[in-house]
């Protein structure tokens, strides 16, 4: 499986390496939503990280 490095050159963040099939799907989703692929990737990563933080805070409350 081929991978492609996807990064926003204007930011100081680390590049994200994704399979090409994911990039194709992200491009399709971005077009459907009328936003660019970088914005979609940022949004997905933020939602994923935020969801992970919520999971950890719930776990910590139970401790």
TrEMBL record:
Pfam families: RHH_1 (PF01402). CDD domains: RHH_CopG_NikR-like (cd21631). Residues 23-47 form the Ribbon-helix-helix protein CopG domain. One of its GO terms (biological process) is regulation of DNA-templated transcription. SUPFAM superfamilies: Ribbon-helix-helix. This is Ribbon-helix-helix CopG family protein.
């Amino acid at each position: 499986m081929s991978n492609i490095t996807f990064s926003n050159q204007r930011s100081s963040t680390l590049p994200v390496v994704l399979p090409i099939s994911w990039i194709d799907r992200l491009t399709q989703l971005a077009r459907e939503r009328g936003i660019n692929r970088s914005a979609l990737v940022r949004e997905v990563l933020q939602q994923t990280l935020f969801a992970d933080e919520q999971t950890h805070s719930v776990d910590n409350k139970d401790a």
